[in-house]
From TrEMBL:
Record bears the keyword Lyase: yes
Signal peptide feature range: none
Biased composition (Basic and acidic residues): 424-433
NCBIfam families membership: PRK05692.1
Species assigned in the record: Pisolithus microcarpus 441
Name assigned to this protein: hydroxymethylglutaryl-CoA lyase
Keyword Lyase set for record: yes
Domain Pyruvate carboxyltransferase, residue spans: 105-378
Entry's EC annotation: 4.1.3.4
Gene Ontology MF terms in the entry: hydroxymethylglutaryl-CoA lyase activity; metal ion binding
Region of interest (Disordered), residue spans: 421-440
InterPro entries recorded: Aldolase_TIM (IPR013785), HMGL (IPR043594), PYR_CT (IPR000891)
Length: 440
């Protein structure tokens, strides 16, 4: 097993928890990881070699046993000191990195909330509800349906309560809402408690950012103040039986302060998880991310957090969203946000375009299945297929229809390339069918 710095990860043979020595000790001590690795190799090698030696001479055997006992004791004590120092300085992960083996990829549909919040024209609650219902019928099983924010700040999110009353719940679907503060949560809880037929809300999402500049532009508070304000909200939501998901905005660049230090992203994500969020979505809000910059952030964040607790949220401003998702998939992430038709943008990130289109993500993960069998085989040897990803019961044709429909409502074309291609092929097939019928 290779440690992320390229040093062989060495397990402490005397520590019952099996913590990796290399990389966790180095930040706590004024020595390099290489020096630590070398020291441990030497001492453990000496111990193991001595333990396996059997000379049959009583005095030599006694000396070996003493060496074994002393070495074991030294490692136990040293391990305790290092781990206590690490915990005090926040160096040891409470969520050791783990790479999920599953090929299931969860797609969280954020179009009804993140996709519509930047629209200039008002959208009727009935239209929003129809979008949600179409998405559910298309097989989307995780849908963020709106937010309980002040209409003064985000006018398009007005009427979320009415939208919820018009939703037609689908079995096994999870519906969530964004909540910025305690007032927003209270509105959700009041709606759930007073309604004879409560809306199907099982989850809320809370959000903060990786920079003070963006946080102040978005919520008028610093990141630290934002986290302090969110902690009681998360506790109250969990006490009410709701799941909580967290967002961290501007993980790559901030429109107000420039390039973001990945260590800030790691710290904020860790805080959200420690509050009780089951997952943290890392948002490339400006869409400036590249595979290299995304990998750099993930390398840093997973020093404290397992990949199973992270999601990716990539805007497609520069056309790199799918490449960034591929990078995150290779790194081990299995949860991604997407917006049907590529809807979106951010009111507080000038110039940022929409989220990556849900249709494009689904096609990138499963589109190879639509090719059919090989038309002209090269030989009798079967064609080697690539990895097959499972995105659940999602229908790409229905998604494309939904993206086209909501785009036409907004008086524009869908920005989904996969959606456009699928609709063009559907139209071509329709014309060919009509032409064939006319010849009969």
């Amino acid at each position: 097993m290779i440690h992320r710095q390229g040093i062989p990860a060495f397990k402490n043979p005397f520590d019952g928890d099996g913590w990796p020595w290399t990389g966790y000790m180095a930040p706590c001590l004024a020595v390099t990881p290489t020096a630590i690795s070398g020291m441990i190799r030497t001492v453990v090698g000496l111990f193991r070699g001595a333990s396996q030696t059997r000379t049959g001479v009583g005095s030599e055997l006694t000396e070996i046993n003493c060496l074994s006992t002393a070495t074991r004791s030294m490692f136990r004590s040293y391990s305790q000191v290092v781990r206590r120092a690490s915990l005090r300085r926040g160096m040891l992960s409470r969520h050791p990195p783990s790479r999920p083996a599953s090929d299931f990829v969860r797609i969280v549909e954020v179009g009804p909330r993140d996709g519509l919040q930047n629209e200039q024209r008002p959208i009727a609650p009935a239209i929003k509800a129809e979008l949600i219902n179409k998405l559910a019928r298309a097989g989307m099983r995780n849908i963020e349906v709106g937010s309980f924010v002040s209409p003064k700040w985000v006018p398009q999110m007005a009427g979320t309560s009415e939208v919820l009353s018009l939703i037609e719940p689908v079995a096994n679907a999870s519906y969530s809402v964004l909540v910025p503060n305690r007032k927003g949560l209270d509105d959700v809880l009041n709606l759930l408690s007073r309604s004879p037929s409560p809306p199907p809300i099982t989850e809320i999402a809370v959000f903060t950012s990786a920079t003070d500049a963006f946080s102040k532009a978005n919520t008028n508070v610093t990141v630290a103040e934002s986290l302090a304000r969110l902690a009681p909200v998360v506790r109250a939501a969990l006490d009410a039986g709701l799941r909580v998901r967290g967002y961290v905005s501007v993980i790559i660049t901030c429109p107000y302060s420039g390039r973001v230090d990945p260590r800030r992203v790691r710290e904020v994500a860790r805080e959200l998880l420690e509050m009780g969020c089951y997952e943290v979505s890392l948002g490339d809000t400006t869409g400036a991310g590249t595979p290299e910059s995304v990998r750099a952030v993930l390398e840093e964040v997973t020093k404290d957090i397992g990949v199973g607790q992270l999601a990716g949220h990539f805007h497609d401003t520069n056309g790199t969203a799918l490449a960034n998702i591929k990078t995150a998939l290779d790194f081990g992430l299995r949860s991604f946000d997407a917006s049907v038709g590529g809807l979106g943008g951010c009111p507080y990130s000038p110039g940022a375009t929409g989220n990556v289109a849900t249709e494009d993500v689904v096609y990138a993960l499963t589109g190879g299945d639509s090719y059919g069998d090989v038309g002209e085989p090269y030989s009798d040897t079967p064609v080697v297929q690539g990895p097959a990803w499972d995105v659940g019961p999602v229908s790409l044709p229905l998604l494309a229809d939904t993206g086209s429909w909501i785009s036409s409502v907004l008086k524009r074309e869908t920005t989904s390339r996969a959606g456009k291609a699928l609709l063009a092929r559907k139209e071509r097939e329709r014309r060919l069918s009509e032409s064939a019928q006319a010849k009969l």
